[in-house]
Write a structure and sequence with these properties.
Layout (H helix, E strand, L loop, with lengths): L6 H94 L5 H12 L3 E2 L4 E7 L4 E4 L21 H12 L1 E10 L2 E15 L4 E8 H17 L9 E5 L4 E3 L22 H9 L5 E8 L6 E11 L4 E8 L1 H61 L14 H11 L5 H48 L5 H32 L7 E4 H18 L3 E6 L6 E4 L1 H17 L5 E11 L3 E10 L33 H11 L3 E7 L3 E11 L12 H7 L3 E5 L3 H13 L3 E5 L2 H10 L4 E4 L8 H14 L6 E6 L6 H7 L4 E4 L4 H13 L6
Helix pairs in contact: 1-2, 1-4, 1-6, 8-9, 9-10, 9-11, 10-11, 11-12, 15-16
Length: 814
């Protein structure tokens, strides 16, 4: 290293150093201004494009809402039409009866009604009247005339429902009503279709007059109306809605009507982007998706970059899309870039002028100051030269600066107070040791408190890992989970320092997959090494056993610490990790782990205490790297607790090698991944669940757990909302919280049971899900009308087991 042995040279060095600091500071500021410019441009581009995304998404969502509304109207429209038809038939029958009851017999009147209703059909013969007696005897059936005069009371559809019996029950209880069932179409006698029938009692003859309609016929009509409406939509000059099905068939395209009815699955743009396939794929994401491609702009006839948004309507198998052409976007962004560039140039000009002014000031002030201080140092140099062998005093009259005068006073008392200073140093050392112990206890307490939120991070990460993920997301979450586990282990180790020293430390032994641990460390640290341009090499010996018994977390912590140090202190070259087998018996494997690098190395005089707590290599090269000095000390103590040994070798400027050896038992039982039986999983698939819970966090946790079991989950935030939902929808299971606003769980359950009793509805399965877990709470829930009870906090396994229990053995009430 260059040594300065002259005050004059030192003065010059400080001036140059100050200029360098100013240069770096202002250069850093200039760089930050440029980076801010780049960021502002990127932010503007992002916000502008995002605004376009919002516009096209809103337009698609409007159409989706309209389509959904039309889908919901299908049943209502059919019901209204059927009721009108039956009312007309009932009026015809009533009119005939009133006209001829005094002059003709019942059989003659019946024939007149038969002749009036039999030939009436609609919807191209798909709709017709049927008339039955209340005993199930067919009086009129134009859809199947061969069934007339037959008793169809035992007639069933493909689901086993007794159709005629249901008609009889409807008119018996309320004179008229609707029935949902399946039946053949007049032109298709091989397949049953979902059908709604409306029946009404004709009291003079105790007849059931009815008419039916097929849901798919009405739905097709509504689809055609929706297509017509969509084809006319325009929300900007070049913006329109087009519709596909999931197989790539074009259903609606306002600007290219020649494509309607054709399959465009393989359509590509000029860049060979398979835009139709990508639109269909993106549409099936929960929030829909966006696709970029190049397409002809209607207003200009030119090929222009386009951004389209697509959303999937599952009920009709429709992919609804729209897009925006980005040529206007590029023009707006370009104008914004020019404005931002001009602002940047003005800032850099002012910065340059400031830099020149500061350099002039630094040279002037530094020259005057250091010339004065050089004189003071010369005086002190002469004094210390004499004071080394003689008890002399420094004359303060030779000094100008107050600081040097005070230093002179201290120097004059230096020899007399030397012994006192030594005694003070001993006391200071003792105080430092006490402070160190207090610090250790504080860190131990803090690490214990931090473990709770860290465990929360691990729990949510594991919940995300259970969700369907693509390969990239899976890798990110596994890396996040591994990093969180490593961080938790490191935090715990701060507490473990005192445990190790007091002999209270305990290893957590279990069987684990050693290559898998090495691979997870590789996945965690390789990006960090490659980010610095280092070559990261992992060599796992072919004879290294897969499964061993040991403390997986401690082994992982040691390796991460050693490899992380190598990456930190290596500026170029490579970092190599080797796992070798030294020897192996029938029960144990003697393994050696080696971490080597081509970094800055460690000087020989520092290698003796590098494994001590808080040890730092005190050289200028090392001081640029941060660290607590605890890592290697903890590693050596952990290796010692595993009955292993650890060491190192290093050469200044050429790199370091850290190694440790462990003898680990071979695992008798390998890791087994538990699986849920397929049959049990199928029992819960599609289960419709109502979760009555007012706490948003509890809603999220329970909903995610139930959805991962295959359940369909609906949420009510209070008891009143739950009653409203149950009125509109039948649920397989209701999970009921106890403490809620408006109505608590007991009141809500009692209201539901009363409602079910009043309309003779089959009782719902209600399971309490409550934090009340003291003795007697379960009995109170059952007494309120609930069927079962789960106490909070609950595990997913408990919830799964409870659902399976009720799915296999449902409750029977009498």
């Amino acid at each position: 290293m260059f040594k300065i042995n002259s005050i004059r040279k030192f003065n010059l060095f400080n001036i140059l150093l100050l200029i360098l600091v100013v240069t770096l500071s202002l250069g850093g500021f200039a760089l930050s201004q440029y980076q801010q410019y780049i960021k502002d441009v990127a932010d503007f581009e992002f916000r502008y494009v995002e605004s376009k995304k919002i516009v096209i998404r809103q337009e698609v969502e409007k159409v989706v809402e309209d389509v959904t509304y039309r889908k919901q109207l299908t049943e209502d429209i059919l019901k209204r039409k059927l009721q009108e038809r039956v009312e007309q038939a009932h009026q015809v029958a009533t009119h005939i009866y009133q006209q001829y009851q005094a002059t003709e017999s019942q059989s003659q009147i019946e024939k007149r009604i038969h002749d009036a209703l039999y030939p009436v059909t609609w919807d191209n013969g798909q709709g017709y009247y049927f008339v039955l007696s209340t005993q199930g005897l067919v009086k009129i059936y134009s859809g199947k005339p061969d069934l007339e005069s037959k008793n169809l009371k035992e007639l069933q559809d493909n689901s086993g429902k007794y159709i005629v019996k249901e008609f009889i029950d409807i008119v018996s209880s309320g004179n008229e009503g609707y029935s949902m069932h399946s039946w053949y179409k007049p032109d298709d006698q091989l397949k049953m279709y979902p059908k709604i029938s409306f029946v009404k009692l004709f009291e003079p003859f105790q007849w059931i007059i009815g008419a039916g309609g097929y849901l798919d016929d009405v739905e097709r009509e509504l689809q055609e109306r929706a297509k017509t409406k969509i084809s006319r939509l325009r929300y900007r000059a070049d913006s329109y809605i087009f519709v596909l099905d999931s197989a790539g068939k074009m259903l609606v395209h306002p600007t290219l009507p020649q494509l309607i009815g054709k399959n465009v699955w393989d359509m590509v743009d000029v860049n060979k982007v398979k835009l139709i396939q990508q639109l269909i794929q993106e549409s099936k994401k929960p929030e829909g998706g966006y696709v970029n491609y190049v397409w002809t702009q209607p207003s200009t006839g030119k090929l222009v970059p386009k951004l389209s948004y697509a959303q999937y309507v599952k009920d009709w198998d429709w992919v609804i899309c729209t897009g925006v052409y980005l040529n206007e976007t590029e023009e707006v962004i370009g104008r914004n870039k020019v404005e931002l560039r001009e602002q940047l140039n003005q800032r850099l000009l002012l910065l340059g002028m400031l830099y020149v002014g500061l350099i002039v000031i630094i040279f002037t002030v530094s020259y005057l100051f250091f010339r004065k201080i050089d004189k003071e140092f010369r005086v002190f140099a002469a004094f210390f030269s004499e004071a080394a062998t003689h008890n002399i005093f420094l004359e303060k009259s030779k000094l100008s600066f107050v600081e040097f005068m005070r230093l002179a006073e201290t120097a004059n008392h230096m020899i007399l107070e030397r012994k006192q200073i030594e005694e003070n140093l001993v006391k200071a050392k003792e105080c430092a040791e006490i402070a160190t112990q207090a610090k250790t206890e504080f860190l131990a307490n803090m690490s214990h408190e931090i473990r709770t939120p860290m465990n929360g991070v691990l729990g949510v990460t594991q919940l995300l890992l259970d969700t369907p993920l693509n390969e990239e997301q899976q890798m990110y979450l596994e890396t996040l989970s591994a990093s969180a586990e490593s961080l938790l282990t490191i935090i715990n180790d701060i507490l473990d320092i005192s445990k190790i020293e007091s002999g209270k430390f305990r290893l957590e032994l279990s069987s684990f997959n050693l290559p898998k641990v090495i691979q997870s460390i590789n996945d965690l640290l390789r990006p960090k090494a490659e980010e610095k341009g280092l070559k990261f090499i992992v060599e796992l010996g072919s004879e290294v056993p897969c499964f061993v018994v040991g403390d997986r977390g401690r082994l992982r912590q040691i390796l991460i610490n050693l490899i992380g140090n190598s990456i930190k202190f290596t500026l170029c070259g490579n970092v190599t990790v080797q796992v070798k087998i030294k020897s192996q018996s029938q029960t144990h494997a003697h393994l050696e782990f080696v971490v080597s690098d081509t970094g800055i190395g460690v000087e020989s005089e520092y290698q003796e205490y590098i494994f001590e707590k808080f040890a730092q290599v005190d050289t200028s090269e090392r001081r640029q790297f941060s660290g607590t000095g605890l890592g290697l000390s903890i590693c050596r103590q952990l290796i010692a607790s595993m009955d292993g040994e650890m060491g190192m070798s290093s050469e200044k400027g050429k790199g370091s090698t850290f190694w440790f050896q462990l003898s680990l038992p071979l695992a008798a039982v390998q890791e087994v991944t538990p699986s849920v039986p397929e049959k049990n999983a199928q029992l819960l698939a599609g289960l419709l669940v109502l979760l009555v819970e007012d706490n948003r966090t509890n809603q999220m946790v329970a909903r995610l757990m139930l959805q991962k079991m295959g359940c369909l989950v609906d949420i009510a935030e209070n008891g009143q909302e739950a009653i409203e939902k149950i009125t509109r929808q039948d649920y397989n299971v209701i999970f009921m919280d106890i403490q809620m606003p408006l109505m608590d769980g007991y009141q809500t359950t009692q209201a539901i049971r009363a409602q079910e009793l009043s309309i003779r509805k089959k009782p719902s399965l209600i399971i309490a899900m409550t934090a009340n877990a003291i003795k007697g709470d379960r009995e109170k829930c059952l007494a309120a009308g609930m069927d079962d009870y789960i106490a909070k906090p609950f595990k997913r396994e408990i919830l799964h087991k409870k659902l399976l229990q009720w799915a296999i053995t449902p409750i029977e009430r009498h």
